[in-house]
Amino acid sequence: MENHNIVIVALHDKPDAIEDCIKLLNDEWPRSKTARMRSIESSNPNLPISLIMVSNTTTGNSDVIGHAKIARLPFDTGSCMIESVLIHPANRGKGFGKLLMEECEKLAAKLGFSTAVLSTHDKQQFYQKLGYEFCQPVSQYGAGPSPSKPSLSQVKENKIPTKSDKSISHEEKELRTSVTVPQPPPLPKSNNAFRIAKVYMKKSLNQ
Ligand SMILES: CC(C)(COP(=O)(O)OP(=O)(O)OC[C@H]1O[C@@H](n2cnc3c(N)ncnc32)[C@H](O)[C@@H]1OP(=O)(O)O)[C@@H](O)C(=O)NCCC(=O)NCCS
Question: Where along the chain is composition biased (Basic and acidic residues) (predicted)?
């Protein structure tokens, strides 16, 4: 067995590992190389940070065997999101996932976050072992629904939103409320009919 020397570094401090990192991620979660590049190239000290686990062997090879990303949450400055946690298939079950998560948590605490949040479809047990517990879903992106957009109930009823009832004539109101939004095409049939819903988990970093 080769003697492994494992290091965990920020991807922006090791840009020569970007290609390997893209391959690691895309082998697990296929995505266009450009989209993946855009996502991981954003790694910077002010977040998001992509942490990579690199295995340097005595034979001089340097392999990227793990990745995890720490990102800010738009509505919660005290919490960060840990995403895209991945260990190369050949290196799973050796404690590397746990090690990488611990490094993420240490760095997140150092950056001032008191809670780490993540979402998962099927790795609840792995995260539970690391001390995570189930929590309410968090919003990861941008602002909430814009007031100018139709409400969910309006979309469900397929009605275009109207101006204030008083400001339009009865005929116009009838016309507007009877206009229906075209139906989107049906979703492609998936073999994965029972796709598991994702759950959110969190862990306090003040321990
Ligand atoms: C999930 C993943 C990161 C775990 O990495 P790993 O290196 O295999 O995990 P470790 O060896 O560090 O395991 C730490 C502990 O969790 C347990 N564990 C790991 N994966 C587990 C799983 N799928 N279910 C239950 N327990 C698990 C281990 O048995 C170990 O327990 P122990 O401390 O009692 O021995 C890895 O399996 C992976 O990359 N999976 C594919 C990508 C993925 O699904 N990522 C998660 C996205 S939310």
Answer: 156-176
What strand order describes the sheet that includes 133-135?
A: 4-10, 49-57, 62-73, 76-87, 115-120, 199-204, 133-135
Nearest CA to ligand 1 atom 13: 95
Q: Is 158 left (phi over 0), alpha (psi -120 to 50) or beta?
A: left
**Any ligand 1 atom below 6 A from CB of 92:** yes
* Ligand 1 midpoint to CA 206 (Å): 23
Domain boundaries of the chain, sorted by first residue: 4-139+198-204
Backbone angles phi, psi at 153, to 5 degrees: -65, -35
Give the CATH H-level superfamily of domain 4-139+198-204: Gcn5-related N-acetyltransferase (GNAT) (3.40.630.30)
Reported pTM: 0.80
Q: What is the pLDDT of residues 40-63, one digit of tens each?
A: 999 999 999 999 999 998 888 889
Q: Determine the distance separating the centroid of ligand 1 and the alpha carbon of 90, expressed in angstroms.
A: 12
Of all protein residues, whose CA lies closest to atom 16 belonging to ligand 1? 126
Q: Which two tokens stand for residue 54?
A: 């690199």
Distance 85 CA to ligand 1 centre (A): 10
DSSP structural state of residue 129: H
Contact 124, 201 (CB under 8 A): yes
